[in-house]
Amino acid sequence: MRALELKIPPPIVAVLVAAAMWGVALVSRPPIDVSTLVRAVLASALALAGGVISLSGIVAFRRAKTTVNPTKPQNTSSLVTTGVYSFTRNPMYVGLLFVVLGWAAFLFSPWALIGPLAFVLYIGRFQIEPEERALTALFGATFSTYAARVHRWL
To answer: Phi and psi for 136 in degrees, rounded to 5?
Structure first.
């Protein structure tokens, strides 16, 4: 399965998962009816939080003058461990997860909740694991110490 590693950028994975969630929601009925306004407010709050978290990660990378390209972790020029990276090693992915959770809240289908789980599993295996191998090769004990101190997700 290494053929899938670092091949599909995480935002594309999020869009594909969201499309699948929408398809599932179209064929399943929610157990209770919740107003569109309530769903939209909850979805917007989650998506906004996700956007802020992801943007914080991007800004930190830009300030450190390192790559934000998720398919080329070997091009990383510095290890960012401050700011949002002191709470999570993957704020950009956590942010995308919040957006996907927001979409699940808007769809309000229990089956759509499989989407965020699928996103976490895919990103963990095919994005984060190979990134962490590359960071270990680049930064050695410094990355290992950081990884032991800061959670992968939250």
So the answer is: -65, -40
Residue 61 sits in which domain range?
A: 35-66+79-154
Residue 99 placed within a domain: yes
Stated pTM of the model:
0.96
Three-state secondary structure call for residue 107: helix
Among residues 30, 5, 8, the alpha carbon closest in space to that of 96 is found at 8
Q: pLDDT tens digit string along 89-139?
A: 999 999 999 999 999 999 999 999 999 999 999 999 999 999 999 999 999
H or E stretch at 145: helix 141-149
**Does 83 fall in a domain?**
yes
Residues making up the chain, counted from first to last? 154
Is 10 a member of any domain? no
Q: What stretches of the chain adopt beta strand conformation (E)?
A: none
Quote the CA–CA distance of 25 and 94 in Å, as a whole number. 23
Q: How buried is 1 (Cβ within 10 angstroms: 0-12 exposed, 13-18 middle, 19+ buried)?
A: exposed
Token pair in block for residue 8 = 């599909």
Q: How far apart are CA 15 and CA 24, in angstroms?
A: 14
